[in-house]
């Protein structure tokens, strides 16, 4: 018997997320919860410090908790690496069979090209 994937929102997300964005995330989760993707891209943005923000649904389909301490990720668009960064997120622990929305912040110094028109890329783990 396979376990059913569930969607959870981290406490600050639960508190601050607009109803519109919550509905969008829930709809995307319904469409992607059975896929084998590790990350599902939700949206990208650039903040006031020129950091590149990538919001994804992280799908932990394993029986073990998933952590992001000392994990290197990169954002790729049209076969070009846009950003790469090693994250030290000790508080981000995703329980088994759980999907969680999260925004990864790639500091400007780790963005290799202008971050315009990159909303169709993807996030990947660097092992």
Automatic annotation (TrEMBL):
Tree of life domain: Bacteria
NCBIfam families: SLAP_DUP
UniProt name for this protein: SLAP domain-containing protein
């Amino acid at each position: 018997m396979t376990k059913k994937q569930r969607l959870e929102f981290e406490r600050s997300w639960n508190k601050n997320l607009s109803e519109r964005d919550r509905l969008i995330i829930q709809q995307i989760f319904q469409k992607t919860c059975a896929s084998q993707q590790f990350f599902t891209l939700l949206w990208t943005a650039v903040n006031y410090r020129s950091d590149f923000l990538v919001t994804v649904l992280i799908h932990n389909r394993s029986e073990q908790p998933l952590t992001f301490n000392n994990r290197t990720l990169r954002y790729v668009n049209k076969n070009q690496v846009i950003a790469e960064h090693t994250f030290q997120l000790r508080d981000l622990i995703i329980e088994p069979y759980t999907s969680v929305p999260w925004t990864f912040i790639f500091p400007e110094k780790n963005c290799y090209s202008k971050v315009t028109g990159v909303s169709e890329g993807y996030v990947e783990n660097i092992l």
